Amino acid sequence: MTSNTPLSPRPLHHLSDVRHRVLTSRQLREHGVAGSVVGERCRPGGPWQQLLPGVFLLHAGPATGEERLHAALLYTVPRAQVPRQPGPQERGREESPAAYGQAMITGPAALALYRFTSVPTLLSLEHIDVLLPRTRRLRSAGFVRLVRTSAVPRPRPVTGLPVAPVARAVADTVARLEDARAVGRVLSEAVRGGHCEATALVRELSLARLLTRPQVVDAVEALLAEGRSLAEDRLYAMVREHALPAPLWNVDLWLPGGPCLGAADAYWPDHGVVVELDVHGPHRDEAAVWSEAALKRERLERLGIAYLRLTPRGLRDAAALAQQATVVRTALAAADRELTAYVVVLPR
To answer: How far apart are CA 307 and CA 9, in angstroms?
Structure first.
């Protein structure tokens, strides 16, 4: 076959984007390219090359990062799917992202797509991790490393590719890191960069059963401390920027001679309002945390104290700060409430 001979009703020379520079053997057959032709063109020194089993790059030279990502996802497409030749109305149509099924990029490659600087660049990655349902029968091959899960998350589209949510991608990255400093850099960038909240990240690490590893536990403790500090700074900013009355910061509330009622990140004694940040440690059960918060709310409200629980996500940006400030201001405005018991306030 010469370069001037059309290969099919949908000639390959009309296809120029990455989704058509990397094709599977099934897709090539749909373009009228026989297996013998593919083998001939993929010989040493030929114009094409085989990147992965059943996945081909239609040019010589190294694959780009985008081509490697696309090839990794195409490798997971079930090959048992019956090949079909597209009709005239479908010629030139872009391949749907649904063609990847439930597969998505995860691990360091996903973080590189999210523009993390704590992971190598796409071209320097030895492997590309692809998240798949546990039921798929497929083996890792070449530069593709499969990660299996029984709970497939909803992917996020990044540069047209399905990518695992940040927290999941971080967990899959941390799972292969042994150096505590490297773990700390990835976790810190996830939170500092505003990619996800510390609590969501800890939850994903817990689901991945990574919190028993010393290098992860140490990094998580530092992460939560940093996450709490950032949330406290945002809470201070909310009070200052929205001209709320100055509260008592970081105090414990006690009944006289009785038990501790709990901690308050901010307390307005003249208004009977408590604000607490929803930031808890890595070993706290989620259900137990919420049960404890509900009990604390009931105990304080029985005394006439309004209890507000704010999440770090709710304080992330200016719009969120304004919304939370409105909630707090509304609670402060209900100043006609009366405390049913004297409350002792002590610094935490």
So the answer is: 68
